[in-house]
Specification:
Blueprint: E1 2-8, E2 13-25, E3 28-40, E4 45-47, E5 50-57, E6 62-64, E7 67-68
Parallel strand pairs: 1-2, 2-3, 3-4, 3-5, 4-6, 5-7
Length: 71
C-alpha cells in the first residue's frame, strides 16, 4: 500500500508493505514499512522492518524487527 497518509485503527490488521508520508499504527501490521513520520500507539504492534525519519512510540506499543532512518 502506498499513500500520503495511512491510519491503521486499533482492530485493523495489514500484512504486506506500507509506504507513506505519515503513518499511524494502532492495530497489527506485519511487513516492511517506509515513511517520513511514524506513530505507534499503545495498542499498535509491528512485526517487520521499519524505515522512518521521525518516530513516536507510545508506552505499551510493540515493534519486533529493525528500525532505521530513511535514506
Amino acid at each position: 500500500i502506498t499513500a500520503n497518509e495511512i491510519i491503521l485503527r486499533e482492530k485493523g490488521t495489514i500484512t504486506g508493505s506500507l509506504k507513506g508520508k505519515v503513518v499511524s499504527i494502532s492495530g497489527r501490521f506485519d511487513g516492511d514499512l517506509v515513511c517520513e513520520n511514524l506513530t505507534v500507539t499503545q495498542s499498535g504492534a509491528i512485526d517487520g522492518d521499519v524505515q522512518a525519519n521521525a518516530l513516536s512510540i507510545d508506552l505499551g506499543a510493540e515493534i519486533m524487527g529493525s528500525i532505521s532512518r530513511v535514506r
